[in-house]
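FAQ: What does the model actually see?

It sees only this:
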Amino acid sequence: MAALYPVLEASPDYTSIVNDRHYARLIALIDDASRKGARVVRLNPANELLPERTRKLTPTLLVGARDDMAAMHEEIFGPVLPIELYATLDEAIAKINARPRPLALYAFGGDAGARERLLGETVAGGMTLDDTLWHFSNEELPFGGVGASGIGAYHGERGFLTFTHEKAVFTQPRLALTWLLYPPYGRRFEAMLKILKRLA
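And it is asked to produce this:
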């Protein structure tokens, strides 16, 4: 953090929160987590007191986040990162699977076996290993959610197919034998079913 953003207020690279309402919403998420027992860690290399008018919010970790905290249920869209603790990979996978399917899953570290387990035993809209967001920025990969995080995918060809309606049209040929399957059902129908089962 110190290498990337040695100062925050004067940095042209460290952005402000978009408006007062969203700034207040983020402060409320931090306060809620703090009241409920999370350890709040502010990453502020120069120990600046950032004036509220700048709407620059110190990158903040919420260590020991739990499900009863608002930050674990809302889209954050700001420099606030809830950190939930786990002891084993089994426990981490169980926590992921106990919740609605995420739009993105980011995994850091781990050996090849652990990564394969995470890929195979969890469901997410997309995944980036040892970084964040890159699965979204790659136009060759479909981007979209699963369940509560969204339906369908876009980017590249997937985007074209998602946002295009293909009209299905079937024309019955004049000499079709489908009349053999019409009621009344009896020996003719049973004989046709036997033939179709053999062809299947």
